[in-house]
Specification:
The protein is an alpha/beta fold and 312 residues long. The chain has helices at 21-25, 55-63, 83-92, 110-120, 139-149, 215-225, 254-270, 276-300; strands at 4-7, 12-14, 30-31, 38-48, 69-76, 99-103, 125-128, 133-135, 153-162, 177-180, 198-200, 229-240. Residues 10-20, 31-36, 246-251 and 304-312 have low confidence and may be disordered.
Length: 312
């Protein structure tokens, strides 16, 4: 599959150089024991909290990959409602050992659940999926192909859409284009969907478990601003089955998300990853985006309807 790679620093396409042998080894498929089918060297991590009615479809989208991950880790975040038993039954319905169920003793939030899965993963790459979202069948195939062409990339994401659970996968555009992100925050809009991410397992970072909002934005920013090569595949390869910043959930409050993003940028400045002038510029751009979203939210709202709340 031909790939077109564009570097944000120059905004010009470049021909991807062949990967080194060591780096290529991390993205080559392993062999399924006894069947000879190629698997991606990826651990899929899914945080699960009271998701018995959606987790089956999420896992089915993983199983439907044209290049399956080598393992799936379902992390029950102290659901306490029968979800854990549902996860264990689901694991038994797939090939032995492919799905591993991890149970947290108490509800600790999605960051803790993702970190636990990350820590227990055995593959060199980690992919994230939420229990109420789904992947396009070719997601991992396209991302692993991009990583083979550019072995310096340690994190790669893509676009997501919102559609019903019964809708067909979104159409793909050819050829796929990979954009390498410049090492500043202006080009990294929040959110960079968590369900789109594939990253190296050995990165010295984790989700901040003390944060309830914008913790994903903080992690991606820490990786990018620390000098690691990050990229985006310009393709819709996963779907939300409810608005990503809808009326419910932690991301539902637009003002709270905006305040959380401000705190993330302040933290990046305090830790030396964001210079003062960069910080001020990013804050100004973020305010304009926030104002635009609030205005569009009011314009698009049907007369008499309650506002739909979008994140920042």
């Amino acid at each position: 599959m031909p790939l077109l790679t564009t570097d944000r620093a120059s905004n010009t396409p470049r021909t991807a150089s062949p990967p080194s042998a060591a780096a290529a080894a991390d993205v080559e498929g392993s062999e399924t024991e006894g069947r000879g089918a190629s698997l991606a060297p990826v651990s899929a991590v899914v945080p699960c909290y009271r998701c018995a009615h959606t987790i089956g479809q999420a896992v089915a989208s993983i199983a439907a990959q044209t290049l399956r991950p080598a393992e799936v880790l379902l992390v029950d975040d102290g659901s306490g409602d029968g979800t854990l038993q549902q996860l264990e039954a689901l694991a038994r319905s797939y090939p032995p050992g492919w799905i591993k169920v991890i149970a947290l003793p108490r509800n600790a939030g999605p960051s803790a659940a993702r970190n636990r899965g990350w820590d227990n993963a055995r593959q060199p790459w980690i992919a994230f999926l939420d229990a109420d979202d789904s992947w396009h069948p070719q997601k991992l195939q396209w991302q692993m192909e991009a990583l083979r062409h550019d072995p310096e990339i340690v994190l790669i994401g893509h676009a997501m859409n919102v559609q019903s659970r019964t809708a067909p996968p979104p159409a793909l555009r050819q050829p796929p284009q990979v954009r390498v992100l410049a090492r500043h925050l202006l080009m990294m809009r929040h959110p960079f969907p968590t369900a789109s991410i594939v990253l190296r397992r050995d990165l010295p970072f984790r989700f901040d478990e003390t944060r309830k909002r914008a913790e994903d934005f903080l992690l991606w920013a820490q990786i990018l601003l620390s000098g690691y090569r990050c990229a985006k595949l310009e393709q819709v390869l996963a779907s939300y089955h409810k608005p990503p910043f809808g009326a419910g959930g932690l991301s539902g409050d637009m003002n709270a998300m905006y305040v959380a993003a401000i705190d993330v940028r302040r933290h990046l400045h305090r830790t030396g990853l964001l210079g003062w002038w960069q910080w001020q510029l990013v804050e100004a751009v973020a305010w304009l985006r926030h104002l635009r979203r609030r205005t569009l939210n009011v314009i698009r709202r049907p007369h008499g309807a309650r506002p739909t709340r979008y994140g920042v």
